[in-house]
Design brief:
The chain is α/β, with parallel strands linked by helices. The protein folds into 2 domains: about 5-200 and about 350-460, 3-Layer(aba) Sandwich (Rossmann fold); about 200-345, no CATH class. The chain is about 40% helix and about 10% strand. The protein has 17 helices and 9 strands. The protein has helices at about 5-10, 15-20, 40-45, 105-110, 115, 135-150, 165-175, 200-205, 205-220, 245-255, 265-280, 285-305, 325-330, 335-345, 370-385, 405-420, 425-435, and strands at about 50, 60-65, 75-80, 85-90, 120-125, 155-165, 190-195, 355-360, 390-395. A 9-stranded mixed beta sheet has the order 1-2-3-5-4-6-7-8-9, with helices on both faces. β8 (about 355-360), α15 and β9 (about 390-395) form a beta-alpha-beta unit. α9 (about 205-220) packs across α12.
Length: about 475
């Protein structure tokens, strides 16, 4: 097998990098009952290279990097005071571009380096390709777990951390790979933050609504003189539209990036109608339009054979200046049963993962609605695993990164739950954050311990049979 040149050049440094680190140079296969005995895993472990840690990690942290046999790049960071516990990170997205060697470092570890500061080893994968695919990303996440074990031995505890779309990935990994053939748990617990926990068919439905509503008011995506296509397709085959070109169309129609006094009357009315009907902050309109364009193209054309997983046939839209006219004139489309089944198989969550799980979500998350948490709790209740789920909420209006001390408090609560069987409560996590973590990290603690998440259908239009 072939490895990237940088990995081959650095591979010779591996043994030296491990020397004196307190880490074994190779793992005993008996440390993990589902250790893959194939040459593939052994080759990947041998190719892992020692890497220079960035200055923003704690002093004396040791870093390792490589590319696995599936094509996914990964980074591993092990602090000098390692507590022999691993946080296995599933990143958000999906990222549209081909993965790059330093993505797990520059994008993911940089954002969540607090976990290394808390004494945990951290490992993150780029996944083997860009674009949609929850099962693919879950497989790559679990393969990194196996790779870590093959190289360093099984840690005392392995915790999953899934962020945003990575919350869907990590939750799926729990369900697919959570139990070894001998019945032992491969994962000891999970922290899911700002997670897409409603699965693909439900979590993305509102963006199909957005495309229809936007086109009704703006009629420029596509323009009337351009090839017409079903809006759920994202873009037609062969389109070379760029994100900047899409942004320009949204700006021309709504003036969303301009101060209100610089928008025309029509632009302001159009913007008010779109965000009022779809129930999103105006500042996120361009981002949601990009996902409902480029992500939909990948999802539909590359993963679902060109068939629609979305329908708005019976939806009654509300919140505009003229709801009757909107509902008469809006484009309508139907779902394809096979596409719904395929997307469900890839991304839906059964809740059948009975390990301690803490979820954390900002109440005013502008990208992934907090009501995803309602869907996940229902899935855990339906599967009989709700007793191993604790959900906590913050009064922030953020998505990608919440306040740093909150991650430290949530991870500490999860670890204490696993180690001591002390199940946390929102109040106990908030108290620990305020009394200890807030003095160690900037950002403060913003937990709302009285918040109760609303039903999903209070935020997203119900689909009628």
């Amino acid at each position: 097998m072939q490895y990237p040149a940088w990995a081959r050049l650095c591979g010779a440094l591996l043994t030296a990098g491990l020397a004196g680190s307190g880490l074994p140079a190779a793992a005993d296969a008996n440390n993990d009952s589902d250790h893959d005995p194939s040459r593939q895993l052994e080759d990947d472990a041998e190719a892992m290279a020692s890497a220079g840690c960035p200055s923003w990690l704690p002093d004396a942290t040791r870093c390792f990097a490589g590319q696995d046999t599936h094509g996914a790049y990964y980074w591993i960071a092990i602090p000098a005071d390692w507590n022999h516990k691993l946080v296995l990170h599933s990143h958000g997205g999906p990222r549209p571009n081909a993965p790059r060697p330093d993505d797990p470092l520059d994008i993911d570890l940089r954002q969540y380096e607090v976990m290394v500061r808390e004494g945990y080893a951290w490992a993150g994968s780029s996944y083997r390709r860009g674009g949609y695919g929850v099962r693919m990303a879950a497989e790559d996440t679990d393969y990194l777990r196996q790779l870590f074990v093959a190289r360093f031995g099984r840690p005392d505890r392995i915790y999953l951390h899934g962020q945003s779309w990575g919350g869907n990935v990590a939750a799926k990994a729990m369900e697919l790979y959570g139990e070894a053939p001998d019945g032992r748990r491969r994962y000891d617990g999970a922290l899911l933050t700002s997670g897409v926990l409603g699965g693909g068919t439900q979590a993305y439905q509102f963006r199909a609504d957005l495309r229809a509503v936007y086109q009704y008011y703006c009629a420029n995506h596509p323009y009337p003189d351009e090839p017409q296509y079903p809006l759920w397709e994202g873009l037609p085959e062969g389109s070379d539209m760029t994100p900047d070109q899409l942004n320009a169309r949204v700006e021309a129609c709504t003036g969303v990036d301009r101060p209100p006094e610089q928008r025309s009357v029509l632009q302001q009315q159009t913007l008010d109608n779109i965000v009022g009907v779809i129930r999103i902050p105006a500042a996120t309109l361009k981002a949601h339009m990009r996902w409902s364009t480029f992500l939909f193209r990948d999802m539909v054309e590359e993963r679902l054979g060109g068939a629609s997983p979305f329908s708005n046939r019976q939806v009654r839209y509300r919140g505009s200046s003229n709801d009757d006219a909107l509902n008469r004139g809006i484009s309508r489309f139907d779902e394809d049963a096979k596409a719904v089944e395929q997307l469900g198989d890839d991304a839906e969550l059964s809740g059948a993962a009975d390990i301690p799980t803490v979820t954390m979500h900002a109440i005013d998350d502008p990208i992934i609605f907090v009501e995803n948490e309602w869907l996940y709790r229902r899935a855990r209740q339906d599967s009989g695993t709700a007793d191993s789920l604790v959900q906590i909420y913050t009064d922030e209006a953020e998505h990608s990164k919440l306040s740093t001390p909150q991650y430290a408090a949530a991870l500490e609560a999860l670890d204490r739950w696993v180690e001591r069987q002390e199940k946390p409560t929102p109040a106990s996590i908030a108290g620990d954050c305020q009394s200890r973590e807030a003095s160690r990290y900037d950002g403060g603690c913003h937990f709302d311990t009285d918040y109760e998440v609303a039903d999903w259908q209070t935020r997203v239009y119900a689909r009628q049979p």
